Amino acid sequence: MASMATSEMIFFIATLILSVSVVGVLGGQTAHLSLGMQNSAKGTSSQIQTNFEIINDPSSIPYENGYVFYIKNTGETGIYFTNATVNVLINGTLISGSEVSMVSPGNTGELMPSQVGEIVVNVTIPSGYNEITVSVSNGLSKSMEFLI
Predict the structure, then answer these.
(1) Cα–Cα–Cα angle for 79, 94, 92, nearest 5°?
(2) For a disulfide at 85, which of 7, 75, 121, 137, Cβ 3.0-4.6 Å?
């Protein structure tokens, strides 16, 4: 009889140890999943609060020492507006360096909500329909087809 009680006690203790280890592993995985969701939500929140539009008339792009494209910040947060934080593609070709310049109000390098900045592109653009794509640092991009 005593041996039966002893073996039942051993099985009971083994079951408790196994249960505690399973709870520990599941708790750790839940914490890891929760942290991943928090980080993902922060990135999504940044993208939701950031927004802009290309506000040119597509049939009449002004030319002043380069083609001028107007960008309006329609989001809730400021957008860093420099060559290092904004990418410009014309017909799929990246325009960089001295071929493009960003002009923000007061030359602060940032577009605050409701402000309009200029992207001046100093490259030869073929006549006819073309496309500009503007991407900001958090990955948000907008495109516009325009006529030269």
Answers:
(1) 110
(2) 137
Nearest to 46 by CA among 73, 78, 71: 78
Alpha carbon distance 121, 129 (integer Å): 16
Alpha-carbon span 47 to 114, nearest angstrom:
17
Tokens read off for 130: 């073309």
pLDDT tens for each residue of 5-21: 788 888 888 888 888 88
pTM score of the predicted model: 0.70
Query: 143: which residues sit within 8 A by CB, 6+ positions away?
Result: 54, 131, 132, 133, 134
CB count within 10 Å of CB 77 equals: 16
How far apart are the C-alpha atoms of 105 and 111, rounded to whole Å? 7
Query: What are 77-124's pLDDT values in tens digits?
Result: 999 999 999 999 999 999 998 999 999 999 999 999 999 999 999 999
